Amino acid sequence: MTDYRTTVQQLQRPKMLIHAARMGLSDYRRERDLRRLGHISLPPEQALPHLLQAEEQAEDKRRRGDLGYSPLHHVDLLIAVLAELSLLPRPCAHS
Predict the structure, then answer these.
(1) Which DSSP symbol is given to 26?
(2) How many structural domains is the chain composed of?
(3) pLDDT in tens, 41-84
(4) Chain-centre distance for alpha carbon 88
């Protein structure tokens, strides 16, 4: 199983994007937001790979200065990634 927590922790994004995403977590509504992002009715462990791929594409556009880059869409993706990550069961600590 992929360790999404480590993957997300290793993302190197501008602090402003991460801050905006954290601020938006309280307004996250799974059904509404995943529908808008195209991943409705997937459980978190299946939605996360799609969301992470879409976020990586947004990051690539941002870095290239692509005119099609949308900071709002990028933040929406980061909000969904963080929210879906919080829905995954915590790994068990081994004694």
Answers:
(1) G
(2) 1
(3) 788 888 999 999 999 999 999 999 999 999 999 999 999 999 99
(4) 13
Whole-structure pTM value: 0.87
Residue 48 lies in domain: 4-87
d(CA 85, CA 87): 5
Residue 23, domain member (yes or no)? yes
SS3 60: helix
**Alpha helices, DSSP H only, in 1-95?**
4-9, 15-24, 30-37, 44-64, 71-87
- The C-alpha atoms of residue 21 and residue 33 are separated, in whole angstroms, by 13
